[in-house]
Design goal:
Length: 186
């Protein structure tokens, strides 16, 4: 049921967001050198790596680490990078990952390939068995502001309580968080 929901909704969302995605791609291309999309190595279900697309918000010479690990993240942003991140427009290409089955709409956010502490803690709690999501229980309860053990605690809660009703609740709450631009690190 969940895979059918993800596939159908991602297809419809891609149709709906075609024009905004094309405009975003054009803005990225016009305001900075390099590719429009950034393909990030991410950890998926069962700790299998996959390539996750995002609209590029950082310069092409930015180190491949989580943003909070950069000494001065703002210096690496493209001219429209902060806007894309705070509006979450940079996430729209992930609809392709959902359509492909590498991601779901709801699940733990996919870790970067080099976030060993997050990956180890999720594996110990069984969270690695879930398909990663565009949004999740941790995202609506703090998003980028959460320390890793707290984030994994929310991921574990989702693992133990997941249901279609909880997924719908998370999607609705995510919509309002994105509108209010809450919990986003630029």
């Amino acid at each position: 049921m969940k895979r059918f929901f993800d596939g159908t909704l991602s297809f419809l969302a891609l149709l709906f967001f075609t024009v905004p995605m094309l405009l975003t791609a054009l803005l990225v291309k016009l305001t900075s050198k390099g590719p429009t999309l950034y393909w990030s190595d991410r950890v998926g279900k069962n700790n299998v790596l996959f390539k996750m697309p995002k609209f590029r918000t950082m310069r092409t010479d930015t180190p491949a680490v989580a943003t909070h690990l950069l000494s001065d993240p703002d210096r690496w942003l493209t001219p429209i990078g902060k806007f894309l991140r705070t509006s979450s427009l940079d996430e729209l290409p992930q609809l392709l990952s959902i359509l492909k089955g590498d991601m779901s709409f709801v699940g733990p956010r996919p870790a970067l390939f080099n976030q060993d502490d997050l990956i180890a803690l999720r594996t110990a709690k069984g969270v690695h068995l879930l398909t990663p999501g565009l949004t999740g229980w941790a995202q609506i309860n703090g998003r980028d502001e959460l320390p890793i053990p707290v984030k994994v605690g929310f991921d574990e809660y989702y693992l133990n309580h997941r249901s279609f009703a909880l997924d719908l609740k998370i999607l609705c709450l995510t919509f309002f968080k994105v509108l209010r631009r809450e919990g986003v690190q630029h």
